Amino acid sequence: MRHHLRLLVAVLVTTVVGSAQVQALTTADAKCRKALGAGTRVLAIKILREQIKCQKLRMTGTNPTYPASLDCNNISTLPGKALVGIVAKETKLTTIATKKCDGAGASLPHALGYNVCLAPCESTSITSSYTSVAACLACQARVDSTAAATTAYGTLPDPPVQGGPTLKLTCQDGVGTGMRKYFTALSRLQQACQYKEDIGKLGPLDCMTDDSAMKIQKARLGADTVIENKCNDAILGGLASCAATETAEVACINAGTETFANDTFINVYEPRQLTVTPTVTNTATVTPTPSVTNTATDTPTDTPTRTSTPTPTATDTATDTPTRTGTPTQTPTNTPTITRTPTVTRTATPSATLEVGVPTYTPTPSETPTDTPTITGTPTDTPTQTPSKTRTPTNTQTATSTPSPTSTSTNTPTVTATPTNTPTVTDTPTVTATSTPSPTATSSLTPTATPVTTVLGTLNFTVATGDTSVCPADTATTSWQKIKGPPTGGFAGAVCSATRGNFTSGPIVLTGGAPDGNGVATLSLASAVVIDAQQPSAASNDHVCTRLEANGVGSIDCNGGTNADATVVVDSHTTSAPPAPTWDNTWLTYPANPATNTGNGAAAIPILLKSQSTTAACPGPADSSWTAIAGATTWAVTGTATTTINNARKCPGGNGLTGTCSNSPYTVTLSGTNFNCSNWTTNSGARLVIPLAELDVDFGSAIGQTFGVGDLATVIRYDD
Fold this sequence. Notes:
Elements: H1 27-60, H2 80-101, H3 130-153, H4 167-198, H5 215-230, H6 233-236, H7 246-269, E1 313-315, E2 330-333, E3 382-385, E4 398-400, E5 457-461, E6 480-484, E7 508-512, E8 520-525, E9 529-534, E10 543-550, E11 554-557, E12 566-571, E13 588-589, E14 602-614, E15 632-637, E16 640-646, E17 654-655, E18 659-660, E19 666-671, E20 687-698, E21 701-702, E22 705-706, E23 709-719
Parallel strand pairs: 12-16
Antiparallel strand pairs: 1-4, 2-3, 5-7, 6-23, 7-8, 8-11, 9-10, 10-14, 11-14, 12-13, 14-15, 16-19, 17-18, 20-23, 21-22
Helix pairs in contact: 1-2, 1-3, 1-4, 1-7, 2-3, 3-4, 3-7, 4-5, 4-7, 5-7
């Protein structure tokens, strides 16, 4: 199935704030629009990137997370990690709107043209807050990205699954990559131009199309090269992209990308308006005009004696003499009583909203009736006073050879005001307000309230204490900070716990949104929290401090089916490594494969984790001591968390009495327990596990033995 470019049809679109402004905006307004543009662009790129990745892995046919049945164009069905990443960018856009617009002195949204969010995002109402604008832009970004991806890939079951690397896979991925690169460059150039115009550094320009610096052409040629290097006519003929030849494909993808970028530009800088199109507005009531107003007299002339000089008399007589209509018959006609037909209005249909302030997944517009009856102009068979077959006489110049009377005495009747069969105007039926029942809003058209899905809300996850031993059994289910890599053995015995189990309770405050049609809801950390636990008694009385804060929005799958595993894998390059790097997101894989937990209530929450050791109780989450500490952007999941350090740096010290560090690789695994969406309460039995790699840890000394520096593989488990 081959698909062509989407055509944007805008009926009576009014541009309120355009790119060709003469007068610069205020600084606050210009910066607000710049921030919204950048945030929307980043979101659009993220969505397109995830769709491209999905298509590539689906075509490969070897990844169970991306089966052949997966519709990569449908954002709501993307795998958990991809979807969570998109929602995180949407949340970021909302934050930008709050800080850069609402909190920075920008004019109200309506002053910048943000008045209404048009279909298919009309369920989002624009309010006095820019967070509503952000929600609209996020919805529009999903729509526009999906249209662009459909241009490049077609629709399910296309593109065809290959079962491994093929030329088709390489070409199709090149098409998507070329589109993404061109969109990124084009959108950035358009927005940079518009900001300069907004602050008065440029004269009026059409920043959507201006390429006086030839930078857009350069970006386009770069994207073209990507496609041309990976595709040819033969390969494209077997794909479902928008063209079957290389030349046509390049042109088609360029056009599709430009539509994508232009729509993104318009949504931010030239927001479309809803202009009411008059559909049967105030149509005059059908009032039959008295058709026999030009009274034509029936002049009965007895035929005079024919004379030799007929005098042509040009008379403006209605030759088609109207017949007596008599009493106008009441002909039942389907004459609608023309009341003002309610035009289609955009109404903010109540929709399931999320408590955490982010746009819903599929802001699908709800087609609910408006407050006015939609069928007011219902034609009713109303007997109206319609004159039957009343022909209006046409004034035709008929030069009839009417024999004029001669001097011969003839019986020529005098043309007098003889009674004519003229319908009197008083008998003219005027269509007045009759007893025709006017349409009323029947009960069947009464808007009904859209049911709102229950929001999960707040859950105080109170951390339970754990096992006090230095190496609990793997079957233990309590809170635990499991490690691999510290000195172990000797008089202390095997050591695999970083604490003595006396965890503080927190709580870890979680916020759950409303489950969608698939049972998936947003889930995030509501506020920063520090969990304190002391080191094992055999080591010291120092405190192990762990600070958690939100790093975006995660998800919980109340109906099951979502992968909730996470892994961290690091190659430490042993003792020859350079100074230990800060946390690298490439170490982390979420969701991990194969999935080991897809049950009801499976959850994953993106977090920023920081840790430090103190001799006294841990500082609070707002303490300045946390500022300089680099964090790890990892995940708290209810599935299985695994950390592996290959070529680990082993601490050099220790002996048989004090213990020694173990050999590489270091691997630690712990499992969590799912939440219960039907029992969203404290102490529900859920367990969160967090993978973490700590490099170049100084293990100190014991009994005169210095252990030195080594790596530490860690998984933390918190039991509610």
